[in-house]
Amino acid sequence: MTRAAAEGTLTVEVRFFAVLRDLAGSERWELELPSGATVADLLARLGEEIPGLPGGLAVAVGLEYAGPGRVLETGDEVALIPPVSGG
Amino acid sequence: MDTHPPSQTPAVSVRISADPIDGEALVRRVAGPAEGAVILFLGTVRDHNLERAVIRLDYEAYEPMALRELETVCAEAGKRFGLSRVAAVHRIGSLEPGQTSLGVAVSSPHRDAAYRASRWIVEEVKRRLPVWKREAYADGTDRWLAGRPASATRGAAP
Predict the structure, then answer these.
(1) Which of B61, B129, B146 sits opposite A83 (nearest CB)?
(2) What is the pTM of this model?
(3) Chain B residues in contact with A18 (beta carbon < 8 A)
(4) Given B55, B86, B96, B137, which is the most exposed site by the fewest CB atoms within 10 A?
């Protein structure tokens, strides 16, 4: 459960998997962003916080793939999906 | 009354599971007297990759999303190819060479649709499911496989 966000901000839970979990050193982060922040803003922020974060990541919000323009809301579960290798 | 009217969404049964995949159970889920064709696909772990001896594969999934994507893919295939029923399981956890990582069974009144749908589902699973594998080698090392960028967009019909 995420905390209530401070005024003018929103708080999301970021999930990391596979190679990204190794890189982030954690399975999940709580991240505060300015209100109105998008998936692209989140990726830019994570790029600053995680050295070596690769490009070409897909993002899912609420268990569905989401484009860079998707606006985030407090409480969203945002998963970073590194290149997949299922099957 | 026909229990599987073609206008309705076909019956879809999907799972993400740490248990071994039973191909015959998948076939039983989709077979029926109105279906002239049943195709079972089993994806299995190879003991070699890029000329290295593989002793184990560890599969990880973003489980709730993988389940949802698998259901979406199978339902979409059902409509697109006019299938009667679809059953699919993706394995997670530790697998040894020869074990099944993916099982897909489809049934249809006609074999052409069943063959094409089976192939399409497997390709979409590989494109869309948030699943990753870590390969362990005979020399004691292991690594995450590079994979390909996940895509939510639909593949072209074969």
Answers:
(1) B146
(2) 0.91
(3) 60, 132, 134, 144
(4) B96
